[in-house]
Write a structure and sequence with these properties.
Radius of gyration: 17 Å
Strand order of the largest sheet: 6-7-8-3-9-10
Mean pLDDT: 92
Number of strands: 10
Strand content: 25-35%
Number of helices: 8
Structural class: alpha/beta
Distance between the termini: 44 Å
Length: 230
């Protein structure tokens, strides 16, 4: 029996509340363990697509590991899909980094020992061992990005989704983030304008333009197509 795709979009369309189209008939399949970058200009629909992957926006046209993204499945889907926002301050809101990372596992009702284990393991995996007692307010931008990733790793997410992860990072921060994500063994979806950086991580790219999927294939070929459109 063939396992379900990690992510499946079947003719996904979405309009903003004012009626403006954001996504138009987008179909895309991502297999387990695959790495894909979503590229395109501002307003192409990249962030809107990402919001469908963990149910912030819901549509039965989207399936995660075979589960339609609808109310009945949201708890299970949000355990499988870790969404990291562009601005880590939107994700880090507790008094300490440790509390931020523990927030998700605690909401699952896990035992305190298991929560602490996940916190320690997740912080260590992003290079922030020992940072638990600190306030996220005092972290650098790169450290905040890594702490935000730790919050979803603590949920043992099988699918990691990141919106513009390199924004506001210097060259060193971009390199460190690339190394961190390269070690991640699950399914990876990145929306970015940083094409060179993304091509180091993602063999596959999908090009969105005004909510339409224009190209999907090897990163080099899709980047060439995007360049030709500019």
């Amino acid at each position: 029996m063939i396992p379900p795709a990690a992510i499946s979009l079947d003719a996904l369309s979405y309009r903003y509340p004012d009626g403006t189209p954001a996504l138009d008939n987008v179909s895309l399949t991502v297999t387990a363990g695959e790495r894909i970058a979503l590229i395109g200009n501002n307003g192409a629909g990249k962030s809107t697509l990402l919001l469908h992957l963990n149910g912030i926006l819901q549509s039965p046209a989207v399936k995660i590991l075979g589960m339609p993204v609808e109310k009945a499945n949201l708890r299970a889907i949000r355990q499988k899909v870790g969404l990291v926002f562009q601005n880590p301050d939107d994700q880090l809101f507790c008094a300490s980094v440790e509390e931020d990372v523990a927030f998700g596992p605690a909401n699952l009702g896990l035992a305190p020992e298991e929560i602490q284990h996940r916190v320690n393991e997740s912080l260590a995996s992003v290079g922030l061992a020992g940072f638990g007692p600190r306030s996220a307010f005092h972290l650098s931008t790169g450290q905040k990005k890594r702490a935000a990733i730790a919050t979803v790793l603590a949920m043992q997410a099988e699918i990691l989704v990141l919106d513009e992860p390199t924004s506001n990072l210097d060259l060193r921060g971009r390199r460190e983030l690339c190394d961190l994500l390269d070690a991640y063994t699950g399914t990876l979806v990145i929306a970015t304008h940083d094409f060179e950086w993304a091509s180091r991580l993602c063999p596959r790219m999908a090009l969105l333009e005004r909510g339409t999927l224009l190209a999907d294939g090897l990163s080099g070929a899709v980047m060439d197509q995007f360049t030709a459109l500019r």
